[in-house]
Design a protein that fits this description.
The protein is an alpha+beta fold. Helix content is 40%, strand content 19%.
């Protein structure tokens, strides 16, 4: 099933592709001959899942997007104090190539403008047999998760036409900000700007920053958190130059643009976004990159004010219903069918906040479920905050499931997602408890795959599964010793602590069993319907009843009392032995179900 996020990205790609404003960068001739219609969007989560649409594999030069990564390398090498002495962290309010130097000291305002970027490049030194540019290139490659390379044609063009940057470097040398011959610094700066990347590379580089310096694909710790923290801080205030205020107000993520057409945005702890489109606005930023980033931030609620929490997966656990049966006692044929087809119903437990990252992990899980899964139960009992984007995406997931003939089921006692399904064509099955939701799915599977399998509302004593191993003659002998009982809806049939009262065979209706939970509330354990039995398990608990049994609707029962069983044991030892063997077999099956049910309840 297509993910709603993939569908959303494809939709906005089509819409924003119609923007024809701006022109590709032409100051460097080698970059001028580019197709202005090129347009790619790539989104990478901090756990390494990638969404991409458009021209995400077309290579282009990284240009100014190189600046935060070189700045981070200098910080990692020398520490904050040394680097701060050479380049400040204040917004300049100027365009990328302005001369924004402190009066008297010549210190650049920040490392995102060209003067500060040249300074940062000068602070990186060769080490371990690697030259400065080799170390810079290796750092970029580690962020991207693949070996990158330099476009020599673009480098030569930069070298020939980069007069302003050459002038800035010599001006910085005059203030001793660049302490040595500026020529090698200028050349390495031009080389770093000429590194070839694609939209996917930039998305992974951004996601590595979002993931505290750890590449989510390679799992390599590329940069420690201290320089990452500083880099993201400066990207927030200075990354978009003289458009930084507007950007942080409308998009709200640390970002960096480049005249090659790339734009990256970082939502720490959650996602890295990259957009590639060559036409630029008056600030030197991609027109479509700006529009895409603003649109995603608004629609997906990615602004840091809204999405400030770390984006951990919202998936607590996922399993099919054979691992967590409802507790409804059924005959052997029904249980066999549920075991054979239970994998078609899957339960997904959610927890925490459904902000963008949590929603993305949920949507990804649902979208990637095997086609054979027909019923999807979402357990929302541990969900706290739910963003509007979650409601929209989940509504789309549900529509996609319905189109494929599948069904979404909710465990949502608080009505957390009621708004999302307010206008749907048919009600979404919603239950207060996991047991009730699983029971509904079991019945649905029985109805679908057991067309000749009846779920009786009324049975004869001979049809009770617990007596299945006995002959018809033995069953009749036992029936002759039983008493008829009937109970109205809500009547308490057995109470906790009562002594063994016999074995109860349900002929029609249903009963529920419950216990008192640790908070004092009553916790429902099972529902028993026609053909099922109860009461015999008290024999394993010092002859004391451990659950309260209550009628759910009108109930008709055959009761083999404790006195009748004692009399049977004295009058017909063979039949008594056969009875206990049958009840033991039935109890074993019930205990197996109970243990699986308990394993799930412990997680609850």
């Amino acid at each position: 099933m297509e993910s709603p996020i993939e569908g959303y990205l494809a939709r906005i790609h089509r819409e924003i592709a119609d923007l024809k404003d701006g022109k590709p960068y032409s100051t460097i001739p080698a970059m001028a001959n580019v197709n202005p219609d090129n347009f790619g969007i790539c989104l990478t989560t901090v756990d390494g899942y990638i969404y991409e649409v458009g021209d995400t594999r077309d290579e282009f030069s990284i240009q100014s997007i190189s600046k935060p990564f070189t700045y981070g390398l200098a910080l990692a090498d020398l520490g904050l104090e040394v680097v701060d002495a050479k380049v400040d962290v204040e917004p300049s309010g100027d365009s990328f190539n302005e001369i924004s130097l402190a009066e008297g000291t010549g210190r650049p305002a920040n490392a995102m403008i060209n003067a500060g970027a040249l300074t940062a490049t000068s602070l990186v030194k060769g080490s371990g047999g690697n030259t400065r540019i080799k170390r810079i290139l290796n750092t970029y490659s580690a962020f991207a998760g693949r070996q990158l390379s330099i476009d020599e044609e673009i480098f030569a063009s930069e070298l020939e036409h980069g007069h302003r940057n050459r002038a800035l470097a010599y001006l910085l040398r005059s203030f001793n900000i660049i302490e040595d011959d500026p020529t090698p610094v200028i050349e390495d700066y031009f080389r770093q700007c000429s590194v070839l990347v694609n939209c996917l590379d930039l998305s992974l580089m951004a996601a590595t920053l979002a993931n505290s310096g750890r590449n989510p694909m390679t799992e390599k710790q590329v940069m420690d958190i201290v320089p990452v923290e500083r880099v993201l801080s400066v990207m927030t205030t200075c990354g978009m130059y003289d458009d930084a205020g507007s950007w942080i107000s409308t998009v709200g993520m640390p970002a960096k643009s480049g005249v090659g057409g790339g734009t990256i945005s970082v939502l720490p702890g959650q996602v890295g976004l990259a957009v590639y489109s060559p036409p630029l606005d008056e600030h030197g930023s991609s027109v479509r990159g700006m529009a895409t980033s603003q649109r995603l931030s608004q629609d997906m609620e990615l602004h840091f004010v809204r999405a400030a929490r770390v984006g951990k997966s919202a998936i607590r656990s996922t399993y099919d219903i054979t691992a967590a049966p409802s507790g409804i006692r059924r005959d052997d044929e029904a249980m066999d069918l549920i075991r054979d087809h239970g994998h078609r119903a899957r339960l997904v437990e959610l927890n925490g906040d459904l902000l963008f990252a949590g929603t993305e992990s949920m949507v990804r899980e649902l979208s990637n479920l095997p086609d054979e899964v027909e019923l999807i139960i979402l357990d929302l009992r541990r969900v706290d905050e739910v963003a509007d984007v979650s409601l929209r995406l989940l509504a789309e997931v549900r529509e996609n499931l319905v189109e494929e003939g599948r069904e979404l089921v909710l465990i949502d006692a608080e009505g957390t997602l009621a708004h999302a399904f307010r206008d749907v064509d048919r009600a979404v099955p919603t239950f207060d408890t996991r047991t009730a939701a699983v029971e509904w799915c079991e019945n649905r599977l029985i109805g679908t795959y057991g067309s000749d399998l009846d779920l009786p509302s009324k049975v004869d004593i001979s049809q009770c599964p617990a007596l299945g191993p006995l002959s018809a003659e033995d069953v009749q002998k036992l029936a002759d010793r039983m008493e008829d009982r009937s109970y109205d809806d809500g009547a308490v049939i057995r109470r906790i602590g009562q002594s063994f009262g016999g074995v109860f065979f349900i002929l029609s209706g249903a009963v529920t069993t419950s216990v008192v939970g640790p908070t004092g509330d009553r916790v429902k354990l099972t529902t028993l319907s026609a053909g099922m039995t109860f009461g015999e398990l008290a024999l394993g608990s010092d002859d004391r009843q451990e659950t309260t049994v209550k009628a759910s609707g009108n109930v008709v029962i055959k009761l083999l009392t404790a006195d009748a069983i004692s009399l049977l044991e004295s009058e017909d030892e063979r039949l008594a032995l056969e009875l206990w063997k049958a009840l033991t077999r039935d109890a074993y099956t019930r205990v197996d179900l109970y243990l699986r049910e308990t394993a799930v309840r412990i997680r609850d």
